Amino acid sequence: MIILPPSPSVPRQALRRLHTPREVRGSKGYIAFRPCLRWEFGFSCAFCLLHEADFMTIAGSGGFQIEHYVPLAQAPDMGNLYTNAFYICRLCNTARGSVPELSPTGDHLLNPSEVAWSEHFRFVGDELLPLPGDRDAAYTAEVYDFNDRRKVEMRRQRRLRISQFLKFVRDSRRFQKDLLKGAEELGDRRYLELAHSLRSYALHAHQNLKRYSAIPADADTHCLCGNTLHHVLPAWLKEQTISLRAK
Amino acid sequence: MNAIISGQAGVAMVLDGDEVAALRVGSGESASTCRLEDFAFLFGDADDLLFLDDVEIPQVAERLTHEFEKELALQLTLVLLDHGLSPRTRRVAGEELEVLFSRESTKSFVEGVLYARILPFGSDLTGAHSCIPGNATRVNILLQELAANQSHIAAVQMAWEVIPADLFGGSMERSQIHAAAVRAGWFREIVTWRSRGAKGRPPLASLDSPLTIPPDVIAAWIEELRRESAGLDEPEEGKSPDESTLHLSFVAEDTADLEVAINLAYKSLRELRAKVALEPGLALMKEQRLRELRMLQKLESQEIARLHKTATSLPRGAWEALAQAERLLSG
């Protein structure tokens, strides 16, 4: 199993789309894109980069929605255009509403499929900030409210909890070996009992880490393009994941 | 005669010289003899005791019924907001509530409690709205105003919480004053005052309440709100500041109720952002809205932190076991 990094870094390239879903019809036809979009964007918000696991208090992928880069209100005919659809967390979606991609003062909303986020944003602590002087990035961060206190808190929780659990698993493994060795050499029962306790606690920590799986348990096995070869994490996320050894 | 009444317990104790009697809700004016020692048995841990002097049985019965209805209305409101209950149960609660709200003071009491703090994460205002029958006008208005006022409620709640404890005289006094202020409707009045721009002094003096609240506390509370509200716009003539956002129709289906307030704040912020491009003078107002939004988000993020902690935690003693292992091995 692979889990999320405690603190993500921003994609160094524009998010290239692999999925080519067949054409859909109807005013809500784009909903059928959801499985493709989940895989395409690594179960993460294409804009603020929060992952479904960060919304763990909401069952499944309920914290995520489909965003239209060019809003439906502005261009209803683009509603079922796959390249106009993005996987987005509901916090970003609520923050934007149907604000147009071009502001009255000429600032553009950045499109994660067209530009590399690293050229416009950087993480500073748990905040995703626009680079100084980058007006389009500032507008994008403001419209999607990248640093909504709830998002910052979710990033913080992930960073603290994954780091903590990984440390516990790593340290307890190291101590377990030494304790078992000590129990054998010294014949001291306390060493054995403590090794057992640590193993039990480490299992708890391991279970907790599994909640941060990069690929959720309910990841779609079928999507609209019918090509399961594309059921892989996007490169930017995959290269950051941590492999969790089976117990 | 004198009487002690509790709506929570649904009982009154009537004292007439050496005679003591109990009057229960639903038993009309017929009182049954009891002893003073029965006090704890009758009232339990009710914390809404009312002491009435020089009253007659019919007055006691009438007041008892009213106090009981207020408590019942509060409980029914909580049922209506509980997303874990069936729509049918919530609908019945809404219907009953509509009847109880025909007495204005009952509705004011419920508002007084609900306006004292923002709705907890997971309470379902949107669902409540969809459960109530179309003709339940009074309940409908209460829910709409409750949604529209969440940001003001949050501000008033936070302003209360930053009042220095020593102004109350101690933490127990603080807690007692808070409980009394909630029941007397002070929070509701302050929320209303703030929603109208926090101008002048809040009309607390008009409240019919035996509450004694230290003047320094009121001053600190109002001062904090004034400071925080600086920059709030004047309401337009004949229009309250929240009028444009007093409808739930745009609320997303899956929102928890703090999110309703957050959505309102976002809506307002988006409108201001568009206007600021044309009228730079509105920038201050935009900043104010953003501060309000951040405050609401911060409140919800505290809940998020708590839920994450609950969902992922190590058993008690885990870190101690690790430290113990380290000590044992290094020793």
Written account of the structure:
In chain A, strands 1-6 form a two-stranded antiparallel sheet. A two-stranded antiparallel sheet of chain A has the order 2-3. Chain A has a two-stranded antiparallel sheet with strand order 4-5. Helix content of chain A is 35%, strand content 9%. The mean pLDDT of chain A is 91. Chain A is built from six helices and six strands. The longest helix of chain A has 38 residues, at 149-186. By secondary structure, chain A is an alpha+beta fold. With 331 residues, chain B is of the alpha+beta class. Helices cover 56% and strands 7% of the residues of chain B. Chain B has 13 helices and five strands. Chain B has helices at residues 39-43, 57-81, 87-100, 104-114, 125-131, 137-148, 150-161, 171-184, 186-195, 215-229, 257-276, 283-311, 318-330, and strands spanning 2-6, 11-16, 19-24, 32-33, 50-52. A five-stranded antiparallel sheet of chain B has the order 4-3-2-1-5. In chain B, helix 7 (150-161) crosses helix 9 (186-195).
Shape type of chain A: elongated
What is the C-alpha radius of gyration of chain A, as a whole number of Å?
21 Å
Mean pLDDT of chain A: 91
Low-confidence runs of chain A = none
- Count the DSSP helices of chain B: 13
Helicity range of chain B: 55-70%
Q: State the secondary-structure class of chain B.
A: alpha+beta
Structural class of chain A: alpha+beta
Distance between the termini of chain B: 77 Å
Query: What's the arrangement of strands in the largest beta sheet of chain B?
Result: 4-3-2-1-5
How many separate helices of chain A?
6
Strand content of chain A: 5-15%
Biggest interchain interface, per-side counts: A-B, 41 and 37 residues
Shape of chain B: globular
Order of helices and strands of chain B: EEEEHEHHHHHHHHHHHH
Amount of helix of chain A: 25-40%
Described by strand count, sense and barrel closure, the largest sheet of chain A is: 2 strands, antiparallel
Q: Provide the spatial order of strands within the biggest beta sheet of chain A.
A: 1-6
Using only C-alpha atoms, the radius of gyration of chain B works out to: 24 Å
